[in-house]
Design goal:
Elements (H helix, E strand, L loop, with lengths): L7 H6 L5 H13 L2 H6 L1 H8 L11 H18 L1 H21 L5 H11 L4 H7 L2 H11 L8 H9 L1 H6 L3 H9 L5 H10 L6 E12 L26 E4 L2 H10 L8 E16 L3 H7 L3 H5 L4 H11 L4 E5 L11 E5 L2 H8 L4 E5 L1
Parallel strand pairs: 3-4
Antiparallel strand pairs: 1-3, 2-5, 3-6, 4-5
Helix pairs in contact: 9-10, 13-17
Length: about 350
């Protein structure tokens, strides 16, 4: 073939006509010795012109002689020199492929510099979408663009990154903090759910006199609570009587003479999401303020999401929040689960 092909560009133009030969050659590159590579000279020789400065200025016969000498030198110098040569070939093939994917020459030049001295070329050959991920990270000036784990992550979310306006914003949503409900829904759909925990302690629930504290039918349908929306069954307890009282009085409930406090002693409620744990909130991408302010945007999303994964939530109360100090509420997602937690436990009723 070297009798007809005098430059790398000529070889590329004939690529599809000799595709089977090139594939055979590439297989040889990765599976045999330098001596065997040399036997594939009909394909190697044109590519070697890339590695030999000035060789394209020689006559055809002088070019072949120079290349053959170069090939002998490569064999003598060992596998590392040969690997450099074959990398040049591989990158030229990759450049052609990436140009068809919209890579301009400036980006290809940065890519070549960026992967030098790494094993990324091998990964890009196997999965060209990793090169797309590299371009996304390069556009964001990310220092992680040479990290294969980050490239793998980004390659899986290329469409999402575009939807969220770029890598930096997507990275914040998935790994930092969310700013709105849409971002929280996305974050929850991509992360592993925090491990459920056990709440051990007393449970307090204050209800109107004569009402069953474990029935939720009297809660008006259409009324939302912090972690439950219309049609979602949830019972709200507190870890202290003071905390439960603060919750009710905030909403204008008259406690004295109208209500009864039910105290369930030494309860072990398992399978709960612990939102009082700062590490859990960080994992979810939310702040304390986002789940204790007057808006239910974040807590409603967390409540609906949690009902499919947990038996309830340990939640910081919105009452008395100051410097990470707050009352603690325990939300149990249905009365049957609550009955199971308190069955056989000591019950104290206090008429207020």
């Amino acid at each position: 073939m070297h009798e007809f092909v005098t430059s790398w560009e000529d070889m590329l133009s004939l690529y599809f006509q000799v595709e089977n030969q090139i594939n055979d050659y590439l297989t040889t590159l990765t599976s045999q010795t330098p001596a065997a590579y040399y036997e594939q000279g009909r394909l190697v020789i044109p590519v070697a012109t890339i590695a030999l400065e000035g060789v394209t200025l020689l006559s055809k016969s002088a070019r072949v002689k120079a290349i053959l000498r170069y090939m002998d030198e490569l064999k003598a110098q060992g596998s590392s020199k040969w690997a450099t040569f074959t990398d040049k070939l591989d990158f030229q093939l990759l450049k052609k492929q990436l140009a068809n994917r919209g890579f301009d020459q400036a980006t290809l030049a940065r890519l070549e510099r960026g992967i030098e001295g790494t094993d990324l070329l091998r990964h890009f050959k196997d999965n060209p979408e990793l090169a797309d991920a590299w371009r996304v990270l390069d556009d964001a000036n990310s220092p992680l663009k040479a990290e294969i784990d980050e490239l793998n992550d980004v390659s899986r979310y290329l469409d999402d990154i575009e939807d969220f306006g770029g890598y930096d914003n997507w990275n914040r949503i998935l790994r930092g903090s969310v700013n709105n409900g849409e971002e929280l829904i996305y974050r929850l759909s991509k992360i592993d759910a925090p491990k459920p925990v056990i709440y051990s302690g007393d449970l307090y629930r204050i209800v109107d006199n004569g009402l069953d504290p474990l029935h939720t039918h009297y809660i008006p349908r259409g009324k939302s609570h912090r972690y439950s929306q219309p049609g979602e069954d949830a019972l709200y307890f507190s870890s202290s009587k003071e905390g439960n009282t603060q919750e009710l009085t905030h909403w204008g409930k008259e406690i004295e003479g109208n209500t009864t406090t039910f105290l369930y002693r030494n309860i072990d409620a398992e399978g709960l999401l612990d939102l009082t744990n700062p590490k859990v909130r960080k994992q979810l991408g939310i702040s304390l303020d986002q789940i204790t302010n007057e808006s239910y945007e974040f807590s409603h999303i967390l409540g609906s999401w949690s009902q499919r994964r947990y038996k309830g939530i340990i939640a910081p109360s919105a009452r008395g929040v100051s410097d990470n100090l707050y009352f603690v509420n325990i939300v149990i997602f249905n009365s049957g689960t609550a009955n199971g937690f308190i069955k056989g436990k000591e019950l104290i009723k206090i008429v207020n």
